[in-house]
Design a protein that fits this description.
CoA-transferase activity, elongated, Rossmann fold, CoA-Trfase_III_dom_1_sf, transferase, Crotonobetainyl-CoA:carnitine CoA-transferase CaiB-like acyl-CoA transferase, formyl-coa transferase, domain 3, alpha/beta
Length: about 400
């Protein structure tokens, strides 16, 4: 692929992170061509032990670590810290997600790093941010989801169940924070590099909690102005109707979104209730939202008479937005995803064959971005980085390995 497909080619980022948030941020950058050097402990990132395993190897890691170079070293050893400082001289940015203050305790705090590279961009990702009364509290993505307001809303409407609010299903709090960190880092690069001679350091402070909160739409303004606490609505949307998941005759659910006047009229005609078009309680979105329970019941009575494929054909024929609820199998075989290069068979030597990966987002140009390599083995690029980037010789590398500084 030519350089147009990799807009971040030439950017070098040092990742001193673990688990999900920082590695997700750097994966986004690496997918767009950045040279990401991931610092791993000698035992590897803990995520290598997550998810389904084949012969003791994580399938998820193939995606999680893709397009990055792995340098495995023991950060508790002063010699490893020296390596980090030498690497920083060659990097544009550092992304980390330790607890606030941990880099300082390791001897590679921001001031130390910037003595090596004065204009270094540092993106900190933590549970609550680098300041504030909660800064030192432990947090994972699920805590960010809870305090950010998302976990309260991922539930059925009040009174429908006594089960606890459900998780979204993926580490959404971590991934959101990683996304904001990547966006912030690129923004800082733009600010730094558009002005000749600008050698100012820039710091990005991303909190899991704040990343989730920023997506909560009108939840906070509505409370501040009206004192209204938004409540969960199950499969529906509190601001638009009809929009929900409706049951089919074969036990599946089909999403139907007909929350505009033309779409509502089409849907009522399709379900055999044209008499409801123009009725006061369904005229306009606000009225439909207020009567959404009745409306969902009417649509559900119709949807239960058809299997899911028939429902999709009928709705698509009327140009009404719809879809069944996709599983991983549906996604893997979907022709739209396949045509656009969003389902990729990536050869992974760790599994002696292909592993399915999602493609790169966003897309640049006409062709999908290539996956340069899957998640590497622990320390797979030690020699390449130490020799090629730091110009170390055989003896230096031998000594570091003998002393247990590197793998």
């Amino acid at each position: 692929m030519d350089g147009d497909g990799f807009p971040l080619r030439g950017l070098r980022v040092l990742e001193i992170g673990h688990f999900v948030a920082a590695p997700f941020a750097t994966r986004l950058l690496a997918d767009l061509g950045a040279d990401v050097i991931k610092i791993e402990p000698l035992t590897g990132d803990p995520v290598r032990q997550w998810g389904e395993q084949v012969d003791g190897k994580s399938i998820w890691w193939s995606l999680h670590g893709r397009n990055k170079r792995s340098l495995a070293c023991n950060l508790k050893d002063p010699k490893a810290i020296e390596l980090i400082l030498r690497l920083v001289r060659e990097c544009d940015a550092v992304v980390e997600n330790f607890r606030p203050g941990q880099l300082v305790r390791l001897g590679i705090g921001p001031d130390v790093l910037r003595r090596e590279r004065p204009d270094l961009i540092i993106a900190h990702i933590s549970g609550f941010g680098q300041t504030g009364p909660y800064r030192d509290r432990a947090a994972f993505g699920v805590i960010g989801e809870a305090i950010g307001g998302l976990r309260h809303l991922t539930n059925q409407a009040p009174g429908r169940t006594d089960l606890p609010p459900v998780r979204v299903g993926v580490s959404i709090g971590d991934s959101l924070a990683g996304l904001y960190a990547a966006f912030g880092l690129v923004s800082a690069l733009w600010q730094r590099d558009r002005t000749a001679g600008d050698a100012k350091p820039r710091t990005i402070d991303v909190a899991l909690t704040e990343s989730v909160l920023s997506l909560m739409e009108g939840m906070l303004p509505e409370y501040g102005r009206l004192g209204k606490v938004r409540q969960p609505t199950g499969g529906g949307i509190p601001t638009a109707a009809p929009t929900n998941a409706y049951p089919s005759a074969d036990g599946a659910y089909v999403l139907i979104a007909a929350n505009s006047e033309p779409l509502f009229a089409k849907l009522m005609g399709l379900i055999g209730r044209p008499d409801l078009i123009g009725v006061a309680r369904f005229s306009g979105n606000q009225q439909r939202v207020q009567n959404s329970v009745e409306l969902d019941e009417l649509i559900g009575q119709w949807s239960r008479r058809h299997d899911s494929e028939t429902l999709i054909e009928l709705l698509t024929g009327e140009d009404i937005p719809n879809s069944r609820v996709y599983t991983a199998a549906d996604i893997a075989h979907d022709p739209q995803y396949r045509e656009r290069g969003m389902i990729l068979d990536v050869h992974d030597e760790a599994f002696d064959g292909p592993i399915l990966h999602p493609g790169v987002v966003p897309r640049f140009g006409d062709e999908p971005n290539a996956i340069r390599w899957p998640g590497p083995a622990i320390g797979a690029h030690n020699e390449e980085i130490l020799r090629g980037l730091l110009s170390m010789d055989d003896q230096e590398i031998f000594v570091l390995r003998e002393k247990g500084v590197i793998s």
